[in-house]
Amino acid sequence: MSRQNSARADGKKVSSELFTLTYGALVAQLVKDFESDEAVNKKLDEMGYNIGVRLIEDLIAKGNVGRCHDLRETADIIAKLGFKMFLGVTPVVTKWSTAADEFSLILENNPLAEFVELPSGHENLNYSNILCGVLRGALEMVQMEVEISFVQDALRGDDTTELRVKFIKRLEDAIPAGEE
Amino acid sequence: MTVYNIYIFNREGTCLYYYEWNRRTDCNMPKYEEFKLLHGMLFSIKSFVTRLSPIDGKNSFISYRTNKYKLHFYETPTGLKFVMNTDLAVENIQDTLHDIYNKIYVEYIVKNPLCKLNEPIQSSLFRTKLDEHVKSLPFY
């Protein structure tokens, strides 16, 4: 664990405002470019996916985490290490399904949406939809297929921001030709 | 002590990178055959070790040695495999291989958007940094 702490200590930090505003500019541009909120959501998810597949390597290398044995452990690492490391917040993991294959991440304050007010006419826009893509991409790289959606968004007047994560299946290792 | 060569494989078994510092023999086959052969062997050893282990045997394959050389193996949870051949005097180098992953692969490949992730590595920056890093190792 010592390596994990030192990695975080010398990790370069940038102002979260710069990040938040850059993300805001990105969303504003996408809203301009696309006709519907759904198309913007889809694009954000796609971009997040591409970020996620790279970000996971950084998380694993810097955080020095091993392979998770169950979804609870995964949820813990996402919340306490992933969100902490890249966004500086720790969401609450809660609302487990009885089969333990679904959980929710509750964000008290969403760093992406710090200075944002949704204009009317964009009721279907998931402003922070990039997070869904990031999680999906990152988890796919560790052989987990998941489905992620926003069930609550503080920007749309809900009490909190809630991301629902649903485990679909474990992706199997590719077997080299000629092996069993 | 000596480092002979390094292989980096991705999850699908494609050899992303190969470099040799000090290889004295040639194995009489095209490189791509050699990569396939090595990856197949690593895959088999891994499942062999896991199945035969009397206790929880996950991730327990870290190296093997013959009377001439030692092969070190490190696998990340994302399925990247780092393989380094050294002489017999080298001890456990899991940390070294993790460092190569953390300080070289992540920094110069993952964080370079122009480098595709599942294709053989062309970046000369990566090549230089890895070379420097390995040459600075105490057991090089």
Write structural notes for this entry.
Chain A: Its main location: endoplasmic reticulum. Chain A: Homodimer. Chain A: May play a role in vesicular transport from endoplasmic reticulum to Golgi. The complex is a heterodimer of chains A (180) and B (140). Chain A is an alpha+beta fold. Chain A has one domain: Trafficking protein particle complex subunit 3 (Muramoyl-pentapeptide Carboxypeptidase, domain 2), CATH 3.30.1380. Chain A has a four-stranded antiparallel β-sheet, covered by helices on one side. By secondary structure, chain B is of the alpha+beta class. Chain B has a single domain, classed as Beta-Lactamase (2-Layer Sandwich), CATH 3.30.450.70. Chain B has a five-stranded antiparallel β-sheet. In chain B, α2 runs antiparallel to α3. Chain B is globular, with a radius of gyration of 15 Å. The model of chain B has no long low-confidence stretch (mean pLDDT 91). The chains are: A alpha+beta (180), B alpha+beta (140).
Question: CATH top level of chain A?
Answer: Alpha Beta
Helix/strand class of chain B: alpha+beta
Quote the beta fraction of chain A: 15-25%
Question: What is the CA-atom radius of gyration of chain A, in angstroms?
Answer: 17 Å
Strand content of chain B: 15-25%
Estimate nothing, just give the exact number of structural domains of chain B. Answer: 1
The number of distinct structural domains of chain A comes to 1
Name the shape of chain A in a single word. Answer: globular
Biggest pleated-sheet summary of chain A = 4 strands, antiparallel
Oligomer: heterodimer
Which value, in Å, is the CA radius of gyration of chain B?
Answer: 15 Å
Rounded to the nearest angstrom, the distance between the terminal CA atoms of chain B is 6 Å
Q: Portion of residues in helices of chain B?
A: 25-40%
Order of strands in the sheet with most strands of chain A: 1-2-4-3
**What class, by secondary structure content of chain A?**
alpha+beta
The CATH architecture name of chain B reads 2-Layer Sandwich
Helix content of chain A: 40-55%
